[in-house]
Amino acid sequence: MDPAAGAFLGLLFLLSAQPWSPVVAGNTYTCDAPLASTLPRESFSSSSELSSSHGPGFASLNRRDGAGGWSPLVSDKYQWLQIDLGERMEVTAVATQGGYGSSDWVTSYILMFSDGGRNWKQYRREESISGFPGNTNADSVVHYRLQPPFEARFLRFLPLAWNPKGRIGMRIEVYGCAYRHASLSSPDAHVTLTLGSLLDDQHWHSVLIELLNSHVNFTVDRHTQHFQAKGESSYLDLDYEISFGGIPGHGKSVAFPHKNFHGCFENLYYNGVDIIDLSKKHKPQIHLMGNVSFSCSQPQNVPVTFLSSRSYLALPGTPGEDKVSVTFQFRTWNRAGLLLTTQLQHGPGALVLVLNDGKLQLSLSQPGHPARDVTTGAGLSDGQWHSVSLSLKGNHLSVMVDGEAATVAHSLRGRIDSGDTYYWGGCPDSRSGPGCGGPLAGFQGCVRLISIGDKAVDPITVQQGAFGSFRDLQIDTCGLMDRCLPSYCEHGGECSQSWDTFSCDCAHTGYTGATCHSSLYEQSCEAHKHRGNSSGLYYIDSDGSGPLGPALVYCNMTDTTWTSVQHNGSHLARVKSSNGESPHPVFFKYTASMDQLQAIIDRADHCQQELAFHCKKSRLSASHDGTPVSWWVGRTNETHTYWGGSLPDAQKCACGLQGNCLDSQYYCNCDAARNEWTSDTVVLSHKEHLPVTQVAMRDTGQPHSEAAYALGPLLCWGDNSFWNSASFNTETSYLHFPTFRGELSADVSFFFKTTAPSGVFVENLGITDFIRLELHAPAEVTFSFDVGNGRCEVTVRSPTPFNDNRWHHVRAERNVKEASLQVDQLPSKTQPAPADGHARLQLNSQLFVGGTATRQRGFLGCIRSLRLNGLALDLEERATMTPGVEPGCPGHCSSYGHLCRNGGRCRERPRGIACDCAFSAYDGPFCESEISAYFGTGSSVIYNFQEHSNYTFSKNSSSFAALFHEDLTLAGEMATLSFRTTGTPSLLLYVSSFYEEYLSVILAPNGSLQIRYKLDRHQEPDVFNFGFKNLADGQLHQVKIHRDAALVSVEVNQNARRQVILSSGTEFNAVKSLTLGTILDSYYPRFEQSEELIKPQSATSTRVQSVSGGVALSAPSRVIPPSLPEQVSVCTHFPATRTDGVKEQKEHSTHNFLPSVTPASDRSDEARSEVSVTQGVIAVVIFISLCVTAIAIRIYQQRWLYQKNESNIPQTGDNAETALKSEVNMQSTVSESQKEYFF
């Protein structure tokens, strides 16, 4: 290969796009030959030498002549050993030794390279590590293979540390081969990408563009971006010419906004064709524009690197001059730093230049005058070179940045003379001049092209000690490093950096952490539910820290947790052809991407989607041959013609499978093509086909034919990974999985519960690297790992032990910035990663779960929901085939039982828990939905069976309401009551009949339970007293009563049970009404005005189920059939504090829920003069027929209180009711001054 390169200084290559045969690159070759040992002594040079026998010419590996190696005159970090390879070579490895037979060796060093012996560049390994490990003695050889290799002619070894008992001593070898190029194979696509950073450092950079159809690989300095070009075409359609170095202006309609390339090209190939070689030979297809030189001159400027905030460069000024003139260029990532200071002659005046918030601020102070400040420039901490020019002469101060019109002039007073010394960067320890000791640290970055008083400064003379002084600098190199290339900020986090670190802005990404690795959201609605969250819109992140982002879904927290994903076509879509053309299909776009939807569906136990068709002379399939004329498309863009619960390709609707279509000749109602609207509602439930993305109905071409359809949201329930668990029964048992791949970012999350004091949860080993999570002690969880920087541990300690047989959640993360560990809601612990340390976690063994490779310190207990970098591991599947490990883990109530609130009881399920709300005045999945209402003195709720029966019977003769006729005979009933009270005596429930029969449930004055049955009006009632305990203790109690003929079973709080035999009868005839509260005269005419039945303080939830003739009548607790308006009477008064507006509002709300609600009477005026309303709470859910639940809904929704005006009660009543009322009142001794509650 010709070593000459094509030089382009405003140069433009034009290449005619003609087909050429590509040059195939050579075969794979080895590149590890020793390069230094064959060089003459003159090829070695150094910063200094201890003696002639310690010169750099003796520094070849294994050489023993001279003093046996190179040693400098002074052992400090400014020494270097340099090699000239004679030409650019590909360098693949280096090796070092100490001085032969001595105590002189280097323990760590920096490797730098250059093409012309100037402007050195530092080689960095593992993206951030710059230092190389050296030797531990004088004679052993330490090899280091360079990944990736580099191309250079000159190499420099800079010792960083050495044997403290000796001095610097080195012998070295360099391995590699002659620099070769690789040509491209023929490409076939078009794309535009951006990649690279700091490419203006005057070093060679490699660019490789590979195109195959629409796939693109774009590589700059071995950093590759993969991209797929958009568009329908899959080939590269080029212009008649290809240009390199610029864009030709003639004949082009598109203006190119950038300047032509200024610099050097080498190894310029297109499809294997050597463009530079063709241009040298003046081939006719090559057109050259501008001056051409086939050589690349070396840069003449020498940059200086300020490594730390203590670095400084002191240069002498030009004393005696009546002006100040300084120019230089700088580049940095830091937003602030002290850049330049000088003390002016003739007084304490000073000039201070600082970088603050990316802007330059110049401050000039003069004795007896206020300081003058100038601010200019913006965004100067972007890592690019910026030029600065300062000029003070006479009474004018001028500042210019980047040659722009940013000059600012100020009138100055007095004579300005140049200072003796100019300081770049920080201050020497002995100096206390201007800018020193302030809040700003010294400048960190690079400076070049320094001129003082119109004289250029050569930093090489400074390095040699002939001019100025310095501290902690690297001269002839710019060590600026782009820590955001490649960016370690994940999930779209924005990377920003300073000189020595980077940070990630995770705002609006949905992720958090030092590298935006961890998701802010739960991974499913099931996880949200077991955080105690109620139904609502939530973001879920199905793959955690994986590449998928969070999706917004609706979580319906019922006993079964449903996930609902909406789309843009939830409204009814009408389909009607126009001009004989087939209507276009409708495409559905969901609030989540297809990848997110697939992750949601894969995690779910079941998914479904409802599709409702409405047809008028429009079919789903043709009648003659069954050819579908309507279909739907699923997630994989496959067309499906099956409907509902049918098997794929069955082409039958649900009615066809069930055999109940309107026309038995067809398998779908719509296929009958009737001249009236018919419908088919189907539920699609094959997970692999969901969601529906497109629906097409094409049979609308007939006259007067129409169709419409509505697609419901995607609904899924279950989370097959949240409860996925395994039980480890022996210390030697474990599960193994493939090696964990988490080189730069790794997170592990899981739940565990145990009674053991210690054990290893997860372990994965490498040659030297490892990662481990363990219960180190009963109250300590430890996350430990090693990525080559030594063992690192993060420990979370709890004030209470973790081995309490409850579920505990662990989440550990390790990235290039830090390691963190969190257990439950305890404060997270973090450990920062060492600066410029090893970054990659390299593992090669299997992943062990619940144990270790040595079968020691195994975990005893349960692990569930184990996820690594967002990927769930199927513990149950692996446990089924592993001895000592069982799938599943029982016992969740100890951890999640606290979610069952308000007295709800936790019930175990194989995969989770359920809350039993029977002992609570609340309902819902966690007993949080209150179904109670407050009753005042004299308040009541009455349900009239006969009115309800008359209404429903007239509407539907086959209704169950016919059972409630006056001749109805009940052979048995079942009632369930939950109540809380502190007042006695109390009436809890009263059921009456038209025949003066009744059932009552009462708390006696001593708090015991009393049940009264009167099933024959000619006999005295059966009165049963159950002395279980005092139930008026303010706690919630549950009573279940079940009568079968004469046998009555009573159960209290699900454990105390009694049975009694009735003597008054076995049949309950003509049930009339159910009463909660006062028995009123309007319903029982013979009641006396002055009597109050009971004044309790209680809360009650009531369920009643009637049985007649072996038929059980029941209804869901909160489902009200809209066609059956219930007759419920609410007999109450408004409190005096209510306003008319409130009254009207609540009455309006009542009408919305119950079509027919009749107050017994309006006594609100009288109520205001009575005693204040006392409060009780009653939660009512009643089952007696299909609609009796209206009472619970009614009371819960309204919560309005009325106070009864007892003076308006007529003094007539039913004999049975009067007797019951009188008897209970005789037992009561409650004072009128007490708060009275009454049911």
Automatic annotation (TrEMBL):
It is found in: Membrane. The chain crosses the membrane at residues 1176-1196. Residues 480-517, 890-928 form the EGF-like domain. Residues 1141-1150 have a biased composition (Basic and acidic residues). Keywords: Disulfide bond, EGF-like domain, Membrane, Repeat, Signal, Transmembrane, Transmembrane helix. One of its GO terms (cellular component) is membrane. Disulfide bonds join C862-C889. CDD domains: EGF_CA, FA58C, LamG. InterPro entries: ConA-like_dom_sf, EGF, FA58C, Fibrinogen-like_C, Fibrinogen_a/b/g_C_dom, Galactose-bd-like_sf, Laminin_G, Neurexin-related_CASP. It comes from the Eukaryota. Residues 31-177 form the F5/8 type C domain. Residues 99-296, 302-478, 724-889, 950-1131 form the Laminin G domain. Pfam families: EGF, F5_F8_type_C, Laminin_G_2. SMART domains: EGF, FA58C, LamG. It is a single-pass type I membrane protein. Residues 516-567 form the Fibrinogen C-terminal domain. Residues 1-25 form the signal peptide. Residues 1141-1162 are annotated as: Disordered. Residues 1151-1161 have a biased composition (Polar residues). Belongs to the neurexin family. This is Contactin-associated protein-like 3. It comes from Ailuropoda melanoleuca.
